[in-house]
Amino acid sequence: MKLKLNKKGQAGLTLIEVTLVIAVLLGLISVLFIGVAAYKKGSDRAKCILNIATVQKAVRSYQNLYEKNIGDALVKGDITGSGKMIETEPTCPASGTYTWGTAVPAASTAYLSCSVADHVPSSIAGW
Predict the structure, then answer these.
(1) Residue 119 maps to a domain
(2) For the chain, what is the domain count?
(3) In a domain, 123, yes or no
(4) Whole-angstrom Cα distance, residue 17 to residue 51?
(5) What values do phi and psi take at 47, rounded to 5?
(6) Cβ neighbours of residue 59 closer than 8 Å, sequence gap 6 or more
(7) What confidence tens digit (pLDDT) does each residue in 40-59 have?
C-alpha cells in the first residue's frame, strides 16, 4: 500500500495574505500613535492653563494678604519660592516659556502668559 501525499491541499497562508495582515496591523498601530499624540497635546494644554490659573490665584492671595492695589509692583520672586504662595516655579509642559507680569493685574487680566499659542485660557473670570 502506497500513501499519496497531496501538497496542494496543505493548510496555510499565502504570502499575499500574510502581507495583508501585516499592513492592517500597521494601519491600526499608526492610528493608535496619532491618538496618543493628540492626547498628549491636549493634556499639555490643560496642564499649562492650570499653571496659569494657579499663579493667578496666588497673585490674588498675595494681593489680599499684603493689601496691594491694582498696578502696584509685583515680581515673580514675591509669589514663588520657598515659603511663598507657590513653592516651585511652574514650567510649561510643552517647552513653552512663561512671561510674568510686573504689576498686580486688573481682575480681567492674567498675570502669567505662555509663549505657546493655544495655551491661552478661554476665560479667566473667577480666578
Answers:
(1) no
(2) 1
(3) no
(4) 51
(5) -65, -40
(6) 74, 79, 85, 101, 104, 105, 111
(7) 999 999 999 999 999 999 99
